[in-house]
# Entry
Amino acid sequence: LWRCGPFDNRNNISAYRPLPLERDPLDTLAYATGRSGCKAYWTWLDADAYGDFLHSIAVEDQSESACLARTYFDLPAAMEVIITLGGSFSQRTYVDGVMVGEDVVPRNAIVRGGYRMRLAAGAHEIGLALGLEVSPFQVGVLDSAYRAIPGLKWRRFGVPATTAPENPRFVHPIFDGFLRMEAAGNPEPDAKFWKATVQNLNGYTKETQEQLSGPYERGELSWLETWPYYKALVYSQQDVKAAEILARVGGLPGKPTPA
# Structure
């Protein structure tokens, strides 16, 4: 893929303001003023043997830096696809010049979410504005069931499609299964616990707090379900609230009894 940077990302500022060249058509001869006044050029990066793109190859000091990325692919037929992302960064994602989603949190995620949409057959462009914390990062295109697409071809250059993506929305290969359980009345045991635990492990601690704070205050959580809420507060350094939970946890239902 093509990558341009580094740009300033002190205090994750790139998540809240556009980067230079972000909305411009790709011109590999173009450059902009980057971090500390440097010239930020477009550079071609090859993926390594694991499919990772190493930002550090192009940027010697990547601390507090942001970059742009562009890549192109040909879709063999019109279909619903999922644009997948991987790595630790805040991001804005564009498909054929249309922003399909953003996440201002630089999550340290083992598995990140992606964007599901319907695309026409032919050439397409993916554009990314990334507030990177560490290398590497990944981008992929899968079918609606998270499988490889036969006949899909990656290109060095391409012309963005003139037809806008249809119905782009956020999806997650792990969390969506838990959402279906909840919609069906939460039939699986401990589903709320496991969903919150997996969210915490993938950098979604804020979402865990938003989802469990109300049930906790209403006394609706078991001891087991309270634990990932407590851990989310610890990860977010909300020590006072976390200590309050530890003080109350002895009276919650489901607390283990010492032998």
Notes: The beta strands are 2-8, 31-33, 39-44, 65-75, 79-95, 98-108, 114-119, 122-143, 153-155, 166-171. The mean pLDDT is 88. The longest helix spans residues 205-217.
